[in-house]
Amino acid sequence: MSDTSSGLRRARSLVPDAFVSPRRTKLLRILGTSAFVLLTGWCLWAFDFSPMRLVEGATRFGSVASFMFPPHVWQSWTEWQEILKGLGETVAMAFMGTLLGAIIAFPLAFLGARNIMPVSWFRLGIRRGFDALRAVEQLILALVFIRAFGLGPLAGILAIAVSEIGTFSKLFAEAIENTSKKPVDGVKASGAGKLQTVRFAVLPQALPVILSIILYNFESNTRSGTILGIVGAGGIGFLLADRISAYRWPEAWTIIFLIVFMVYLIDGFSGFLRKHIIGKDDRTRS
């Protein structure tokens, strides 16, 4: 320890500047710290953040959460039918929106894939189109379509479909680009044309990934369908918003439990299908 300390003292005496931060670095640190503190303080002030407000909100949340147990159980089949119909509409809305988005995105993805579309300016233009569709949130699309087509699941289906066209097109194009070139070269060597190369070399590699993406997004869209229903796109979200606005919290909590259970089932089913399909294809390729 003494040797190390004496060595440090000697080095400090020989090159003192090496142990002192430059003035510019000190100034940048002070400015960065000041900006962070000022921004954090402004956010807390602008959002009226205070311990008293947090305590008050937690107390109100506790009173709302107290309606969670025991869960409300509807007594007649008519009441259950309304809830089950809402759940079914939400699943159907997610299914149809995902299906429409995937059908339209599939051919568009080939136009945005580097290994299929060599014309860079056209491919990049198509890609920017994908980004533009992905940039608009489903909730905003739903509000627009509700204005155009009226309340109900149709607006939700169109909102999910339009949003998924951009997402699917980008992800499908990346799946196509990431395919191995060896099967492509092999099919070309046998005298196949461009379409035959895509059919027999690119698609067998990309389709399992594309199918996995579709199943995953279907699960995600089931959750999104609930939110779209709250703004008027029908389904279980519409019933949930109705119960909350009427302060019927026991029913609202039961609906939330049913939504969680529904998403859990779809998540498990989607995961089973993804594992089964991709695993089967992997075994086939091997």
UniProtKB/TrEMBL annotation:
- Where does this protein reside within or beyond the cell? Cell membrane
Question: Is Ribonucleoprotein a UniProt keyword of this protein?
Answer: no
The organism sits in which domain of life?
Bacteria
Q: Where are the transmembrane segments?
A: 27-47, 91-117, 138-162, 200-218, 225-246, 252-273
Principal place where this protein is found? membrane
InterPro entries (UniProt xref): MetI-like (IPR000515), MetI-like_sf (IPR035906), PhnE/PtxC (IPR005769)
Which residue stretches, if any, does this entry annotate as coiled coil? none
Q: How does it sit in the membrane?
A: Multi-pass membrane protein
**What keywords are assigned to this protein?**
Membrane, Transmembrane, Transmembrane helix, Transport
Residue ranges of every copy of the ABC transmembrane type-1 domain listed in the record: 87-270
Similarity comment: Belongs to the binding-protein-dependent transport system permease family.
Give the NCBIfam families listed for this entry. PhnE
Protein's recorded name:
Phosphonate ABC transporter, permease protein PhnE
Organism the protein comes from: Roseibium porphyridii
